[in-house]
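Morning. Coffee machine broken again, so started the prediction first thing and wrote up yesterday's gels while waiting. Chain of 145 residues, entered below exactly as on the submission form.
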Amino acid sequence: MPESPLRGGGRERGARTEVLSNWESREPTEPREPRGTQPGLSQSCGGAFRSPRPSPKSGQAAGDNEDSMYLDIQKLKEKRDMLDKELSQLISEGYSVDELEDHISQLHEYNDIKDAGQMLLGKLAVIRGVTTKELYPEFGLDVND
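Came back before lunch.
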């Protein structure tokens, strides 16, 4: 098997070979826990993972779990019925789904244009060495907009 350049088999020899040789000769050590953490706990939150959905207890009967699922399904059906009634009411008041979708689309376009304007104001403020807030009156803009 050809020797790897990382092990000193290539043109570069010397320090790199010596470092690897020293590393390879060391005794293996036990892995260490990062500082400030307790063994077995996540480093980011300091606690074990907890599922948002509780698992059934060992003493719980299978029927309890089915009852819980049945109640969840009933709640979802009630929510669906409520949303259907709300939609029917909006339609009876003269709103149409197409009109609402068009309105939402226009709001998205407005927000995209406003974001681009904010970016331009920010760049201009940096060039002039002022805050964005100081530029608002110059362009007839309200700070609360």
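DSSP finds four helices and no strands in the chain. Going to sketch it on the whiteboard this afternoon.
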